[in-house]
From TrEMBL:
InterPro entries: Methyltransf_25, SAM-dependent_MTases_sf. PANTHER family: METHYLTRANSFERASE, UBIQUINONE BIOSYNTHESIS O-METHYLTRANSFERASE, MITOCHONDRIAL. This is Glycine/sarcosine N-methyltransferase. Its EC number is 2.1.1.156. The keyword Protease does not apply. GO terms for biological process: methylation. Keywords: Methyltransferase, S-adenosyl-L-methionine, Transferase. The lineage of its organism: Bacteria, Bacillati, Bacillota, Negativicutes, Selenomonadales. Residues 48-139 form the Methyltransferase domain. One of its GO terms (molecular function) is methyltransferase activity. Coiled coil: none annotated.
Length: 267
């Protein structure tokens, strides 16, 4: 039986949650555990908002730990998946740069490079202002995204000159993803050219983008939107499964890694 996938879409993975799960399984819930630990470390309150909640795993886990977590996403497919698999958790539709929930939260997190879909300076400010509006004074903000500085390293340069390949098994079918990165330097845009190969299907070609931020640039944006920087770091990296729950918090700010993460406080 041929697998069912939606191909007429602006974002192939975000429109096919089951395939997204096949590529990003996170069986140990590293991101969820890390966020839980952050909330405890910084003594944040129980009311939490997840921007770009995707499959809903982090929201569901936090709620299972006694938090009042809500997920927000602009993908109807992701929202349907999350509501079906985690019916006890609330998920709502919204865009990060322009949403209004008529309430404030103790903490807000935006992970998995969702923030990098703010392509213009105006969109960046709109999103951060929207985040600030939905946080109590003293509320905690955690952002996780691709690290622009990584592409200045030797490994980052390799990513820009070689095709990168990933493969998984989805419904007994081999799915291969080949990625070629390039950078629009003038606009700080990472061009992501994806070629999907699904056994028995014609190739699926995508051209996606991410805005790139450097550490001091992002710090300046945060300050202008009434946030005080607490930490900016590249390790630990829960998005890549690199987080040891048993180890104390030790942040590395060498900024050589693939991820840039920020912890800030609403002021």
């Amino acid at each position: 039986m041929q697998i069912k996938l939606k191909t007429d879409t602006e974002n192939f993975l975000h429109t096919n949650p089951a395939l997204y799960l096949a590529f990003y399984r996170d069986p140990n819930l590293c991101t969820a555990h890390f966020i839980h630990a952050l909330l405890a470390e910084y003594k944040a309150g129980k009311k939490v908002l997840d921007i770009g909640s995707g499959l809903g795993r982090e929201v569901a886990y936090l709620n299972s730990m006694g938090y009042e977590a809500t997920g927000l996403d602009n993908s109807q497919e992701m929202l349907s998946w999350a509501k079906e698999h985690y019916p006890a958790s609330p998920f709502v539709y919204g865009d990060q740069a322009d949403f209004s929930l008529n309430q404030q939260f103790d903490a807000l997190f935006c992970v998995g490079s969702t923030f990098l879909y703010n392509f213009s300076n105006e969109a960046v400010l709109s999103s951060l202002q929207c985040f600030r509006k939905h946080l109590h004074n003293g509320g905690l903000l955690y952002l996780d995204m691709r690290n622009a500085a990584f592409f200045l390293t030797k490994e980052g340069q390799r990513w820009l000159t070689e095709d990168l390949a990933e493969q998984t098994i989805f419904e007994d079918t081999v799915v291969t993803l080949k990625t070629r990165f390039s950078i629009d330097l003038a606009n700080q845009i990472l061009q992501r050219d994806y070629s999907w190969t699904v056994t028995g299907w014609p190739p699926i070609i995508e051209h996606l983008r991410h805005r790139l931020f450097f550490p001091q640039e992002l710090t300046n944006y945060l300050s202008s939107c009434s946030f005080r920087l607490l930490q900016i770091f590249d390790n630990p990296t829960p998005h890549a499964g690199k987080y040891d729950r048993q180890s104390p918090f030790v942040f590395s700010n060498e900024m050589l890694g693939t991820r840039m993460q920020v912890i800030a406080q609403a002021v």
